[in-house]
Each structure stands twice: as C-alpha cells, then as structure tokens.
Amino acid sequence: QQLLDQYPEEKELHDRAKLYLNVCEREAGPKAKPPKTIAERLLAATVALNRLDVDEALSLLRKAAKTYPDDDHVHYMLAVTHALREDAEAAATHLNKAIEINPDNQLQAKQEPDFDRIRESKPFLEAIGTS
Predict the structure, then answer these.
(1) Which residues contact 2 (CB under 8 A, 6 or more apart)?
(2) What span, in angstroms and rounded, lies between the C-alpha atoms of 24 and 107?
(3) I need a surface site. Which of 2, 82, 112, 119 has the fewest CB within 10 A?
C-alpha cells in the first residue's frame, strides 16, 4: 500500500502492487470450513468432480464412506470417481455396494455417462447385471 501512495505515477508498479495486495487479502481472509455433514461432503465431492479434481473428490468420498458406510450415494459417487480414473474393479466394488443398499442405482448406472470409460469392462457389466 505504501508503494501505491509514494509512487502514484508508476502504472506498472501499481498493477503489480495491487495484485500482491489482492493475494494478501485473499490469504489473510477466513478459510473455508471442511465439510462435516453427509450432504456437505457429497456437495464438496461433486464440486471437485465438476472441476475435474478427481483426487480431491476421492479423498472427500473416502472420508465420507468411513463415517457413513451404508450410504448408497457415497458408494455410487465413489464408483463414478473410480470410473473416471478408469479403475473398473474399484468402481464395480462401490457400485455393487450402492446397488445392494438401493437397487435403483442399477438402472441409474446403466444410463450414467460418467461410467463410459469402463462401460465395456467385465466388472462393470457384472455390477449392472448385463454380463
């Protein structure tokens, strides 16, 4: 801020100083709280997937699965996330669990475009009952 005040005529210096001030303000501000409820964790994982951060989504969903081991949405999203990583075995394991908890997930998985990378794999076909 002092540079801005002392050298008002230096445009390039102003631009760079403003950039650094913005970074400082952003970093000094309050940090986002980690998700706690199942809904917050699923939303955070969905946001991570939407920005193609599969590793972040996987981390969030693994934590959610430890806390909520019988939630079909968690297992379904884990299946999707593993499918995006082209890990058909892990995807099928979680998809089987999601279907076991809620059979409606079987029909959903048949239509889910996020499974396209593993759609022809034996584990996926077995999970959706078309092998």
Answers:
(1) none
(2) 49
(3) 2
